[in-house]
C-alpha cells in the first residue's frame, strides 16, 4: 500500500496527530535519562512502545540522535525498527537536500532499504524541486512518502519561501504546485506532502498557495507548546483541513516517561486536533 493510503487509514483510525520524538537535553533530564546514545534510544523506544496503536504517526528528529555519532544513528535505526514492527508509521525528520549522486545517496539512506528508512522523510527543496527527483522516484518505488519544506513558521524562512521568482510565483507556491503535480490523480491522496507551519498566519493566502490542490498530506508543526492553536489550523489550512497531520512534541512528551501518561496526553491532543480540523 502506498504511503498516502497508509497515512489516510491511520488518521481515520487514530486522529490527525503526529507525535514528535525529540530527545533533547532538558527532556532527557526530565525523564531521568542520560544525554547519550543509550538515553536517546531508551527515550525513543519508550515513545514507540507507548503510542503504537494510539496515534497516526511518530516523527523522530534525526538531529537529536545524530549528535551522538554512530551509536546515536544506531539508536535511531532501532527506534525505526520498533515502530515498523509495531505497525506505527514513522516520519524521519531529517530535512535532507542536495543534488545528483549525493541526493541519490540520501534517497538510499532514508527511503530505500536502509535501516534508517521509515515510512516517510522530510526534505529541503531549496536547491530546486527537481533536485529531489532521485529521492522522489525511489520513495515511489518503495511505497514511502516525502514531506517537502514549503512554508515554515520560523521567521528566517520567509526570506527564501516568500521570495518571488521571475515567473511571478513565490518559492512556496512553486514548491506546492510541484508537489501537486506529483500527486495528480492519487486517491485518497498522494505520497508527496508539504511541511506548512501552523503559525504562518495569512502567508498561505498572501502567497497564493492552493493547499487543497496539493492532494497530499500537510505536516503542520508548531501546534501546542510552539503557540499554534486549533483556530490557527482552521485559518491557515482552510478547505485543505482534511489533509492536515498536525505535529506536536513537547505537550505529549512532557507526560513521560510513564507509557500510560504518554498515551493519555496523545489521546487528548488527538481529540482536540480532530475537533479543530473537523468540517
From TrEMBL:
GO MF annotations, alphabetized: orotidine-5'-phosphate decarboxylase activity
Pathway annotation: Pyrimidine metabolism; UMP biosynthesis via de novo pathway; UMP from orotate: step 2/2
Source organism of the structure: Kineococcus halophytocola
Name recorded for this polypeptide: Orotidine 5'-phosphate decarboxylase
Alphabetical UniProt keywords: Decarboxylase, Lyase, Pyrimidine biosynthesis
Name of the coding gene: pyrF
Location of the active site: 95 (proton donor)
UniProt key word Iron-sulfur: no
Source organism, top-level taxon: Bacteria
Matching InterPro entries: Aldolase_TIM, OMPdecase_AS, OMPdecase_type-2, OMPdeCOase_dom, RibuloseP-bd_barrel
Catalyses which reaction(s): orotidine 5'-phosphate + H(+) = UMP + CO2
EC number: 4.1.1.23
Domain Orotidine 5'-phosphate decarboxylase: residue ranges: 16-265
Family in the record: Belongs to the OMP decarboxylase family. Type 2 subfamily.
Amino acid at each position: 500500500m502506498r504511503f498516502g493510503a497508509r497515512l489516510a487509514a491511520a488518521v481515520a483510525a487514530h486522529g490527525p496527530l503526529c507525535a514528535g520524538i525529540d530527545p533533547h537535553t532538558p527532556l532527557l533530564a526530565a525523564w531521568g535519562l542520560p544525554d547519550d546514545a543509550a538515553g536517546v534510544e531508551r527515550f525513543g523506544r519508550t515513545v514507540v512502545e507507548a503510542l503504537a496503536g494510539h496515534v497516526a504517526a511518530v516523527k523522530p528528529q534525526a538531529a537529536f540522535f545524530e549528535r551522538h555519532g554512530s551509536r546515536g544513528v544506531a539508536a535511531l535505526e532501532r527506534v525505526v525498527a520498533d515502530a515498523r514492527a509495531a505497525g506505527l508509521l514513522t516520519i524521519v525528520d531529517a530535512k535532507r537536500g542536495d543534488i545528483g549522486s549525493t541526493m541519490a545517496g540520501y534517497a538510499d539512506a532514508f527511503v530505500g532499504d536502509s535501516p534508517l528508512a521509515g515510512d516517510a522523510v522530510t526534505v529541503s527543496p531549496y536547491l530546486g524541486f527537481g533536485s529531489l527527483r532521485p529521492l522522489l522516484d525511489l520513495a515511489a518505488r518503495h511505497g514511502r512518502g516525502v514531506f517537502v519544506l514549503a512554508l515554515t513558521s520560523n521567521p528566517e524562512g520567509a526570506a527564501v519561501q516568500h521570495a518571488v521568482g521571475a515567473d511571478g510565483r513565490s518559492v512556496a507556491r512553486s514548491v506546492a504546485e510541484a508537489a501537486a503535480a506529483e500527486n495528480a490523480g492519487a486517491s485518497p491522496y498522494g505520497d508527496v506532502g508539504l511541511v506548512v507551519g501552523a503559525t504562518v498566519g495569512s502567508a498561505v493566502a498572501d502567497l497564493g498557495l492552493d493547499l487543497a490542490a496539493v492532494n497530499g498530506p500537510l505536516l503542520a508543526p508548531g501546534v501546542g507548546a510552539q503557540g499554534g492553536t486549533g483556530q490557527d489550523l482552521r485559518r491557515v489550512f482552510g478547505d485543505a483541513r482534511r489533509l492536515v497531520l498536525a505535529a506536536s512534541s513537547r505537550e505529549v512528551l512532557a507526560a513521560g516517561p510513564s507509557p500510560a501518561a504518554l498515551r493519555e496526553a496523545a489521546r487528548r491532543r488527538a481529540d482536540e486536533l480532530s475537533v479543530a480540523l473537523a468540517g
